[in-house]
Amino acid sequence: MGSSARNSSPPRVGFVSLGCPKALVDAEQIITQVRAEGYDIVAQYGDADVVVVNTCGFIESAIDESLDAIGEALDENGRVIVTGCLGAQELRIRERYPEVLAITGPHDKAGVMQALHAHLPPRHDPFTSLIPPQGLKLTPAHYAYLKISEGCNHRCTFCIIPSLRGDLVSRPVGEVLQEAEHLVNAGVKELLVISQDTSAYGVDLRYRTGFWQGRPVRTRLTELAQALGKMGAWVRLHYVYPYPHVDELIPLMADGVLLPYLDVPLQHASPRLLRAMKRPGDVEKTLERIHSWRRICPDLTLRSTFIAGFPGETEQDFEELLQFLTAAELDRVGCFAYSPVEGASANALPDALPESLRHERQERLMRHQESISAGRLHRFVGQVRQVLVDELTEEGGAIGRSSADAPDIDGVVTIAPAPDLKVGQFLSVHIDAADAHDLSGHRVMG
Ligand code: SF4
To answer: Ligand 1 centroid vs 254 CA: distance in angstroms?
Structure first.
């Protein structure tokens, strides 16, 4: 379609966002700026003057999905700006869609705005400049992702994130805390801390001291977590690489400063394969630390992700992984079948496994884990848990989450019908039943 048919109305931008929570935060920052400059955000392709597609480039299936989304936006609208992780592979996009207006890489709000100004100039309207201080969010009003850094200093052989997003750049601690305070003041009840590598926060700044409300705070995860924990919202940590100083966070969880939840992507448990992945390889030590974390904080929920079928993985390596899962008794586990990503150094490793075997091992791992997860979840039956309500059901009940459940990736707590349930409310729920992923219960007072 051509430029805006309604010359008196603000220019209108459509937005399609794919990918992980980190990409979602990029999208939120872009739409906040887009609204701040007086553009309207519209939900239908046909209503937009330009469509921005925020892409993902993590694995081949995500790349295909992103390319399809660009194609759909071109078919339905015709004027498309591409941004996000796949944007770093401009040639690949141009080969298939030479007609896209502009392509920018990940975390490039300035690049998107430049392209937008060139293809759809803004109109100044003071009323549309009234953006709330916490920015515009794509998540429900009661929880929000808080991105604390960009990029990564590791070089895991299966991952191209560092070549797409660069080395670690931490946000100043005062800025992160300011954003968190705006979010909590705007009604956010749960802050989900994310980055590529959350435990590395501040390494690039040599943990320098910043300021928050006139007091010094070090740019370091423990100190950041302590300050966030005083804001009166749930604080949940994601993508925590297993550095030794992660141990410092567990007492904060035991004391209720942070949610007793840790998302630690371990990827494998065969030392040989971990070395091939360029990940920390001391599996015995990891297991010891998990046991000591649980001694300090028995309520801890541990989530991890693994890769099955990495190049060179033997049946024995895979068995070691299953034995680790039995010994570690992780609460929540995700597993990807290894997928070669263009540009990843793991593609050059010998002994690649056939796709069917990679998928077979992924399924075996998930079957193996199912009874472990179910056993862990059953310990909650008979307890009263604090639950944050996400949505109401037609029957008069609600769907919520406890400390053990991050939105979208973990389970839920189904709450039986009760009067006066509200989205974003904390409830005490007696847990009546559990399956492998979800809990159900009824509201109690207290
Ligand atoms: S730590 Fe995560 S983001 Fe960094 S290279 Fe490894 S997998 Fe990629």
So the answer is: 28
